[in-house]
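Predict the assembly for these four chains.
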Amino acid sequence: MKKLNIGLVGYGFMARAHSNAYLSVGQFFELKYQPVLKAVAARDPAKVKQFAHKWGYESHYADWKQLVEDPAIDVVDIASPNDTHAEIAIAAAQAGKMILCEKPLARNLPEAKQMVEAVERAGVANMVWYNYRRVPAVTFAKQLIDEGRLGQIFHYRAKFLQDWTISKDLPQGGQALWRLDAAVAGSGVTGDLLAHCIDTALWLNGPIQKVTAMTETFIKERTHQQTGKVSPVKIDDASAFLARFQNGSLATFEATRYARGHKALYTFEINGENGSLFWDLHDLHRLQFFDYRDAGNLRGWRSIHVTDADHPYMKHWWVPGLQIGYEHTFVHQVADFLNGLAAGKIPGPSFSDALATERVVDAVLKSAQSEVWQNCDV
Amino acid sequence: MKKLNIGLVGYGFMARAHSNAYLSVGQFFELKYQPVLKAVAARDPAKVKQFAHKWGYESHYADWKQLVEDPAIDVVDIASPNDTHAEIAIAAAQAGKMILCEKPLARNLPEAKQMVEAVERAGVANMVWYNYRRVPAVTFAKQLIDEGRLGQIFHYRAKFLQDWTISKDLPQGGQALWRLDAAVAGSGVTGDLLAHCIDTALWLNGPIQKVTAMTETFIKERTHQQTGKVSPVKIDDASAFLARFQNGSLATFEATRYARGHKALYTFEINGENGSLFWDLHDLHRLQFFDYRDAGNLRGWRSIHVTDADHPYMKHWWVPGLQIGYEHTFVHQVADFLNGLAAGKIPGPSFSDALATERVVDAVLKSAQSEVWQNCDV
Amino acid sequence: MKKLNIGLVGYGFMARAHSNAYLSVGQFFELKYQPVLKAVAARDPAKVKQFAHKWGYESHYADWKQLVEDPAIDVVDIASPNDTHAEIAIAAAQAGKMILCEKPLARNLPEAKQMVEAVERAGVANMVWYNYRRVPAVTFAKQLIDEGRLGQIFHYRAKFLQDWTISKDLPQGGQALWRLDAAVAGSGVTGDLLAHCIDTALWLNGPIQKVTAMTETFIKERTHQQTGKVSPVKIDDASAFLARFQNGSLATFEATRYARGHKALYTFEINGENGSLFWDLHDLHRLQFFDYRDAGNLRGWRSIHVTDADHPYMKHWWVPGLQIGYEHTFVHQVADFLNGLAAGKIPGPSFSDALATERVVDAVLKSAQSEVWQNCDV
Amino acid sequence: MKKLNIGLVGYGFMARAHSNAYLSVGQFFELKYQPVLKAVAARDPAKVKQFAHKWGYESHYADWKQLVEDPAIDVVDIASPNDTHAEIAIAAAQAGKMILCEKPLARNLPEAKQMVEAVERAGVANMVWYNYRRVPAVTFAKQLIDEGRLGQIFHYRAKFLQDWTISKDLPQGGQALWRLDAAVAGSGVTGDLLAHCIDTALWLNGPIQKVTAMTETFIKERTHQQTGKVSPVKIDDASAFLARFQNGSLATFEATRYARGHKALYTFEINGENGSLFWDLHDLHRLQFFDYRDAGNLRGWRSIHVTDADHPYMKHWWVPGLQIGYEHTFVHQVADFLNGLAAGKIPGPSFSDALATERVVDAVLKSAQSEVWQNCDV
């Protein structure tokens, strides 16, 4: 088994999820590559040392540039805040490293374009951690659509509802809360949450032609953690848009951090001529399926407990009826990446796929500002 | 259209449900008979007058015997407490009246046997108001079983959970609370709630061979409303039993009025070789169906919204998606009774069917006392 | 008890629902007025006669004008297709009749304005059958909002999904299918389904300021039943819009007849600072409630089975746990109308309330055509 | 951090789950002990070598006795079939090893008693892998009960439904199918599935006094994999019992492998005077809670998504809304064991706790055979 040396940037929530995936994947999947936790880089020397120790990274750097320059590193995994993605990715591409980048790809469209140019020019393997594609129930939805079970698609609807920023007392900036700081995050829920919805939608239902959008910032000012000053909040707290897909279907999308009672309710539904699908992150191991070809009086939404050996990824885990959780999506992505590497064909979502998502994000933000429909075409 | 003169005994909850059924049925079903609210009888002259006025009964009696003797009455409908069923039914049979009797048929097995003998000797049409057979989803379950969709049956489980008598302050006896007085009710939840579960089970799954049971009275003493004295409570607050059906399947049954959080949660589930069914009174318009013959990776419990025109009874009501409620089951029973009368074949459940339920009720109560398995055979 | 003579126009689905309400209300509610089924009018003499007989109307007319001129009639109830509403209502107002009109009030905004002018000039009692306000769970939602339990509202989302017109073989026009004929219906799902969603939303969440919308007609041509010719379909099969409410909340609305698997899935959700509510017509007897003031680790969406005596309207029906159905909403509306009449204060929704809904419908249709945000202000 | 050397016996499903727990626990919990995968033992030399390699065990044995005798081993973890538990555990106790044993503790009560005697005589730390106690939602249920939120308990009901042995073609014996061979498994679903239900019940609701039970073997003969002969099946395919707890509550228990449509549906519900709880393994991250102390008209079952930092174990994982899965229960058990070791107090379930479960299992099997109530007292 070949070793593949991973160099991780970041030590936050996502850095943990990725590290766990590298550590676990070999016990559950048959692979030709073995990921090695070679090095981790992050700004705070004490914290990065502690993280390296906890997860078993062989070494650690306080500057990501050292990691990128380290010849031992095969893959640079970017799990740091959004404002660092472009610079690190471009440097890593220039250094000839493979790159796995957290989503969203970048803070904005221009950054995203530069990143795609960089990896394409360098010809390096690249992938973006839109992990929800690899929830078994979501992958299964893709399979059912590709088999033509839904027929002509009429409707797509997705939402991602949270409620964790309703308090006026939350600062903007700082650990976890950098998502409220537009300078770091790029945008609010549009880039953070809708980007997930858009990635899945483009994958399942093809390109989006145009959108009309609306955004809102409910809490207009928050203390900035770095400056200590009360400053205008520049991210969007809520964002919704209508869309038309190239396949003729209509869509509604919505994300917010002000939907009391929902922690991370990402749901999507697709209605086709012959069937419909519904999925919900809060019970991620289930797929709801309506099949119009069932006998008329027996039609009903089926709640499929996606835990059988013939469901995507599930033969690698336990036995039917025993559900997996959130972090398994990252394990699946690593498995697919390593298998793709062995097969010479890296699976999506690539940087280029993520750029398509950025185009929609950009159109949404522009439409919300201009109050005019925006095209998402290149 | 022929007139059919109804004589109702009682003015409580069930008297309202029956009266509503007689009034509504003609607008929703095509019938050869038109029920006429001819007379109502009950002990309290003022209240029975008021009830007659409210529901449009042409006349009223303070003594049910007058009603039974009234030659204008075609059908005697017994909606009074359990301790009156046997005497009224036997008198009505002797008077040659058709009889519709509320459930349970009687307070105990000997009474029930006498009632069956009376109607059979008199040769009068008879039926018992086990109304849940005529919830469209339950009737549909029967249809699916009769079509052989489940194959060999392995398991049956039913429960009827309520929580309305947990307070120690409730008296026994009096309006609505006669259900806590063993002299009036016969038994507690076994005759009141389990009787429903048993009726459905015998209908759907055939005869029960034997049972082992357990009952409990949580509140040992309550003030008796008539005497004003604190007296021992002699009804069962909770009752559960295991059963073996003649078809080889195993069953669990349970009823209680001490299941906090459940108002009237009557549920049943049947597991067969090829499929399973589940139903729940709290959402009575849905039937859950699992079909093993679906493709393996697409199997899941289907939630069938039983509101289509090709579902039992539903073409008579509104349009797909618009649910009906509790009282419609009584309308369906009246419609079936009237259609059966026109066709010369009265549908079940007959007094004789209800006697089979009483045999199981009796076996359950005996087993709970003796702590020995009891046979339910004749 | 005073008699109130009802004159009904129409004999379709809604005419049945209204007639049933007039017949049932007196048995379940204590009222000062007794509705009398005085006359019914509709074009087809044979059918109107049959309808009158079935429901017990004392007389029938083949021309609604005769009914409006009949001095015995107190209330004109308009249950005929949309293209007749304005003419009948204006004539009835001029004749000094009280008016109950099916929704939507009219085919378009100009008609609706004339109707409001007519009833206001005549000073006659008026009400529109937006019946879903009187589902107990929906009325209860209104009560909870008015009690301030949700706090500041951030989000409103509603959808009404059906799937009954997906087949290309359905004609436009004719019994039931007049909803596909723009000349009769005015619009498609916007006026038919979204109008319900908008009425509820305005009631629960106040005025809408502006909208951006999108509509689609998936099947472009259908045979017209009257002409027999294949003609362009001019109604909207699907409609969605984003909205901003005056209270600062954001909303998404969607309706379609192309959502495979949904028969009449009208749902709404409201997210406030302190709580959220969700309701679903497919299980109309339940209200989902999230209360942020519950202890932190015990927070969860509560599924309230709205069947207790202290829930709106429910003390008039059965006992806790026994659900009611669709048609009860009409009974409630009649009860409220009659009680309002006795009290000298007719409850909403009035023609004027329904006009506010028409303004939003109009703005949605205009925005869909112009692709520009539209204001809904007067 | 002190090292703790693990010696695992077995390489099947449970051996994987345990190994994963040892590998993962250190990354998610702060611990004073670090488990080291020192050795694994199992009969097949090739397979045990492969397993050791996959999971990173330092060494491997083809005979568990060598592992037990290995002085480097601190903890013997028994993950082999039931017929090996007693012999290994007794030898390990005599060798002074700590012992973690898969459930059920033994094939029968006499074996279980000997095992408890052995560990108590040796004074070695011991624990049994009844992992479902450590599903966060289940641990949370225990916490709510211990806080007195339910008040006096009236009812307990549990079931564990599967459908994987319905086919007549399955052999008895062999990999995974040793559960059908009574000589290896001891019993069928009573020891395999009901044992889980009983362990949880005793933990949440205290001791069981007595039971009446019923078992069935639906497929009477199956080919035995070792002999190749069609032989009588001696395990129970289905088992159900009624029970009385010492606290006065009544219970129903049921397990089967013939409930079509259920993969691993372990559910329990507890009804108390002031509240009720419900949990379901198929959606293990949710706890349903009904609180009678909520305002009357607002009462409803709350669906608590047990993923917040203030829910048991969850602060160690991801963020609110992101669910964990089955294998995390083993990680939790290892964390608790290691923390208990550091604190000098090993948490349950101990061998002694598991013996209490065996007493109930034994009473159930005896009652099913004798058709007589059986006491479960010591």
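The radius of gyration of chain D is 21 Å. Residues 351-370 of chain D form the longest helix (20 residues).
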